[in-house]
Design goal:
Length: 190
C-alpha cells in the first residue's frame, strides 16, 4: 500500500529520507498540487528555506495516474460534502478543506492510499466520511526504522528536534512510545 503525503508531511519527512519518493521501498507518493504548494507558498518559503535542496528529490504522481479510476467521482463527492456542509464529529465544526486538501483526499480514497497528514480536519474527514486509512509522520518514521530503511542517529534526532522548533503538530503518544522503544532515543518533538 502506498502512502500519500500532504505538504506538511513532506516537509517533516524529506530530510529524514530524501529518497522517499524515488525509492519504491519507502512507498511514498505525492501530488503535483502538493509540489506546487511547497515551492510557491510564501509561508513555506519563509519557514522552510532548506526545502529547495530537496526539490529534485520530489517525484509526483502523473496526472493520468491520479485521475485514473474513480478519482473524479470521489473529488466531486468531496466537493459536494464540503459545499453542503458536514460537521466534523470530533470538533463539532464544519469540515473546511482547501482545494489541495480535497485533491489529496480524493486521490487517497480513490486509489486506496494510506494518507499521512498533520491536518486534523483532513485526517478526520478521510476517516469519518470514507473510512480511509491514515498514518502520522512519526508512524512512518517508525516503520522505516523497523524495515531498516533508515538508521537512527544523532543527525536524524536533530531533525526531530527541529520539528519542535518549527511548531509542527504533535505526534500520537502511541507512536512516540514506539519510537523511543525502537530507537533508544528520547522523543523531544511536538
Amino acid at each position: 500500500m502506498y502512502i500519500l503525503c500532504d505538504t506538511c508531511s513532506v516537509l517533516m519527512l524529506i530530510r529524514i529520507a530524501p529518497d522517499m519518493f524515488r525509492d519504491d521501498r519507502y512507498g511514498c507518493v505525492t501530488l503535483q498540487d502538493v509540489f506546487q504548494e511547497l515551492f510557491r507558498t510564501q509561508k513555506f518559503k519563509t519557514r522552510y528555506p532548506w526545502r529547495t535542496r530537496y526539490k529534485s528529490k520530489i517525484k509526483v504522481l502523473g496526472k493520468s495516474k491520479v485521475e485514473a479510476g474513480d478519482f473524479k467521482l470521489y473529488l466531486e463527492a468531496i466537493r459536494n460534502i464540503i459545499v453542503t456542509g458536514k460537521i466534523n464529529k470530533r470538533t463539532k465544526r464544519f469540515f473546511n478543506l482547501s482545494y489541495v486538501d480535497q485533491q489529496i483526499a480524493a486521490c487517497s480514497i480513490a486509489h486506496g492510499f494510506k494518507l499521512t497528514t498533520v491536518d486534523d480536519d483532513l485526517n478526520d474527514f478521510v476517516i469519518q466520511e470514507f473510512s480511509g486509512k491514515t498514518i502520522s509522520p512519526l508512524g512512518i518514521v517508525n516503520g522505516w526504522i523497523k524495515k531498516e530503511l533508515i538508521q537512527w542517529d544523532d543527525d536524524s534526532q536533530s531533525i526531530l528536534d527541529d520539528w519542535d522548533k518549527c511548531n509542527e503538530h504533535p505526534q500520537p503518544k502511541k507512536e512516540v512510545k514506539r519510537f523511543e522503544k525502537i530507537t533508544g532515543f528520547k522523543y523531544c518533538g511536538p
